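ENTRY TYPE: protein
CONTENTS: sequence, structure tokens:
***
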Amino acid sequence: MLPLKDNLPTDRLPIVTIALIAANVAAWFVLHDGGFLVLLVDVLFMWWFGPSVEDSMSRPRFALLCLLGGGVAFGLQALLDGDAVAPAATVGAMGAVAAVLGGYAVLYARARVLSVVPLPLLAGLVELPALVLLAVWFALQALLAATSLGDVAGDGGAAFLAQLGGFGVGLLAIKLLVQRPKPIPAHARGALS
């Protein structure tokens, strides 16, 4: 499932979100590690979830949340598998996005997200509660980590576990960093406009 649009309006241009997406894309082109699908998913998730989280706090606090998530992900990967093949910049970017998703899960779990669902019986556009989409994302990362643990040719699942660490940072740090969480209007808990 890929998010296309949440139903939470933002009050200001998400400058930090845009800068982080640009840095992520630039790092991918410099490193060109072959993980284009990972880049695409990170960019989409950051674009649709980042602005609402960024809008809930000052820009420096939002940047701090992303740095904490990226730093924890990088540190976990180094601790779990110092010889991992996934570049540190990629894992850090994944951790930053994961921290934003963890923060969104705490602040806006009841928001609705228009998503592309590529399953045979449910193919098409589907409105999902944000918590469902984020739970599926989390479960997929855990599954990928568990099935990659014995993969000696890859990074042994360390990158996926590191990303889950970034998500945990978002879950734990958001309440300390948030300044002005938006209430989810009643109409935003239902259909997208």
The CA atoms of residues 26 and 32 lie 9 Å apart. The radius of gyration is 16 Å. Helices lie at 15-31, 36-55, 59-80, 88-107, 130-148, 158-177. The first helix runs from residue 15 to 31.
